[in-house]
Amino acid sequence: MIELFVIKDTEWLELVAESVSLEGHRYQAPRSIEATIVIKQGDQTYYSVTEGDTVLFKWKGKELFRGIVFARTPDEHTLAFSAYDMLQYLVKNQDVYVFSNQRADQMIRRIANDFQIPTASIANTGHTIKSLVIKNDTTLYDIILKALKQTKSQTGRHYQLYSEKGKLGLRAWPDPSEVWVLETGVNITGYQYSTSINDTATRVVLRRQKDNKTYKASAKDSSGLNKYGVLQYTETVTDDINQAQLQQRADVRLAEKKGVKKELKNIQAVGIPEVQSGLPVYISIPEAGIKKTYWVDTDRHEFKGTKHTMTIDVVEKNTMPEGVS
């Protein structure tokens, strides 16, 4: 079932694959594979790979990954290698930038052009950012996330960087009408579940300094205050926004942080190739009272012979994690 190729110019050379692991992380770049291939068996030799080669992985005839080989571990008869998709070039390269009155998608096009990164479809993000100044050397990925985070803070809209057939793209975060179902007793073989209010906020306060004055916006969760008491989240905003935008951001932040935080992770299941980080799945674990849609935070797929298994972590809301740019 595993089809693994190395692409030389326009020619696809099939590799003899023993196993392939494919993984990705929401709001982290890039997606990657780790593969072990047979390069010699008796007097017979097979195709191999070197750093910089483009490899393509298919499962049951469907392309799941295309990327560049970055590391190898050769042995007498086999070779293990790691490959990353085009988002790797956003992580590996750093620079400084000054953007004025540009949307995030316009910034991405400029960066991709500067670093010769081929692009697929780049969605129009709509929101114009007055100024984004990167004074210190920063990864291209973090620069783009800063722009996407500002866009999300003001509009509530999420956008996703992705790699498709060797090209960088940006799209509105996928929210398909139909989602895969994972259920204990059917295709879930194990999981870990816990609940907590350690990271909950019942009141949010944002402050911004401008012209020696402090501007403030706040939002509160009345129900949460009555039940859990005051759990205040504070943030100093450095973006050039007005009072109305500051209040809007406080409301968005409260929506993200209120309520009991429930953690569902290490879900082991029968493999479904389409289940990837950043996409929704419906999970049914009746014994834990869980029957709802989650977003895949991390995914790792293991392929060997005709067997495919996966392990995923999920989150309730598709919000940008704290500490991300």
N-to-C terminal Cα separation, in Å?
39 Å
Note the beta-strand portion: over 45%
Major sheet: arrangement of strands:
1-2-3-8-7-6
Q: Largest sheet, described in full? A: 6 strands, antiparallel, barrel
Q: How do the helices and strands follow one another from N- to C-terminus?
A: EEEEEEEEHEHEEHEEEEEEHEHEEEE
**Over the alpha carbons, how many angstroms does the gyration radius reach?**
23 Å
How many β-strands, per DSSP?
Answer: 22
- Overall helicity: 10-25%
Instruction: Give the helix/strand class.
Output: alpha+beta
Number of helices: 5
List segments where confidence is low: pLDDT < 50 over at least 5 consecutive residues.
Answer: none
Shape, per Cα inertia axes? flat
Let me know the average pLDDT: 94
Furnish the topology, listing elements before pairings.
Elements: E1 2-8, E2 11-25, E3 28-38, E4 40-41, E5 44-45, E6 54-59, E7 62-74, E8 78-84, H1 88-92, E9 94-103, H2 104-114, E10 119-122, E11 128-139, H3 140-155, E12 159-164, E13 167-172, E14 180-183, E15 188-196, E16 203-210, E17 213-220, H4 222-228, E18 232-236, H5 243-257, E19 261-270, E20 280-285, E21 290-304, E22 307-315
Any overview of this molecule?
The chain is flat. Strand 16 and strand 17 (213-220) form a beta hairpin. The protein is built from five helices and 22 strands. It is α+β, with helices and mostly antiparallel strands. The protein has helices spanning 88-92, 104-114, 140-155, 222-228, 243-257, and strands at 2-8, 11-25, 28-38, 40-41, 44-45, 54-59, 62-74, 78-84, 94-103, 119-122, 128-139, 159-164, 167-172, 180-183, 188-196, 203-210, 213-220, 232-236, 261-270, 280-285, 290-304, 307-315. The protein has a six-stranded antiparallel β-barrel. Strands 10-13-12 form a three-stranded mixed beta sheet, with helices on one face. A three-stranded mixed beta sheet has the order 17-16-18. The longest helix has 16 residues, at 140-155. The mean pLDDT is 94.
